[in-house]
Amino acid sequence: MLSQSILTGVRVLRTEARRNFGLAAPALNKASDPIQQLFLDKVREYKQKSSGGKLVDPNPDIEREIKTELDRVAKQYGSDGKTDMLKFPEFKFPEVKVDPITQSAN
């Protein structure tokens, strides 16, 4: 009984290892296909350029379009021009004073 459960476990591990090899192969960074190598090179290049959370290789047309869209959204949602529309709003809830209820003994 123990040997059968061990054999079942070995079969499961072999199947899982075979399945996960396909996922781990790109992580090895050794592409056998030239197309795969070009893709990996472009992904690495994009990763280097994309630092800082800004657009990668923006041109003036794209920047102008983004500014136009942000202005439109600010106008639509009632911004006064000073509010940063990319920042999550801060909510302040003042403490409400509740009058104590007095009970009279009858």
Automatic annotation (TrEMBL):
Q: Name one Pfam family in it.
A: ATP-synt_F6
Q: May I have one GO cellular component term?
A: proton-transporting ATP synthase complex
Matches recorded under SUPFAM superfamilies: Mitochondrial ATP synthase coupling factor 6
Which GO MF terms are attached to this record? Answer: proton transmembrane transporter activity
Which InterPro entries did the record assign? ATP_synth_f6_mt (IPR008387), ATP_synth_f6_sf_mt (IPR036204)
Cell location: Mitochondrion; Mitochondrion inner membrane
The highest taxon in the source lineage is Eukaryota
Q: What is its main location?
A: mitochondrion
Q: What are the entry keywords?
A: CF(0), Hydrogen ion transport, Ion transport, Membrane, Mitochondrion, Mitochondrion inner membrane, Transport
- Is the Transport keyword given for this protein? yes
A single GO BP term for this record reads:
proton motive force-driven ATP synthesis
Family membership, please give it: Belongs to the eukaryotic ATPase subunit F6 family.
Q: What does this protein do?
A: Mitochondrial membrane ATP synthase (F(1)F(0) ATP synthase or Complex V) produces ATP from ADP in the presence of a proton gradient across the membrane which is generated by electron transport complexes of the respiratory chain.
Identification of the protein by name? ATP synthase-coupling factor 6, mitochondrial
Species name: Drosophila guanche (Fruit fly)
